[in-house]
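In response to reviewer comment 3 from the previous cycle, which asked for concrete evidence that the modeling workflow produces usable outputs, we include below a single protein chain processed end to end. The sequence was submitted unchanged, and the resulting structure tokens are shown without manual editing.
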Amino acid sequence: MPAGTVLTIRTSQPLSSKDSQAGQTFLGTLAQPVSVEDRAAFPAGSTVSGTVVNAKSKGKIKGEGQLDLALTSITVRDHTYRIETAVLSSTEKGKGKRTAATTGGGAAGGALIGGLAGGGKGAGVGALVGAGTGLVGGALTGNKQIEIPAESALSFTLTQPLTLERSATE
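The workflow returned the following structure tokens.
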């Protein structure tokens, strides 16, 4: 699986700039199957694990909220693969700024597609899908912290290729 492959997941629990801690792990499931050379590599529903790279609560008057996430592994048929993805980085400026910036880092010259879509329990968070070095959009408004509800769709880009083992039956 080449670097640049996009993995879209659904988070299993809520994450936020206020309550999450750097180093905290989170779980999710692959929202869409991933194929390589027209062969299914990872079926939808595969378990993924990630880590909170950075979490900083936004101040009431000034200061910037930050929530950075990366995937670390994917489990398929009882086999766990270590993966490296670009960091999905969200920032929320202090009072007066009503937009969130989502950028990708880590992949030299690569693009991170950052998606925040359809939060759990019918809460529409909106959709941000960006290509290039980053995207600025209005997904978050007001003086709220960065909040990613459970069941949110997030897209991460592999920064290192991944070699999958073939079973004897393939």
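The chain has no helices and 13 strands. We consider this sufficient to address the reviewer's concern, and the full set will be provided in the supplementary archive.
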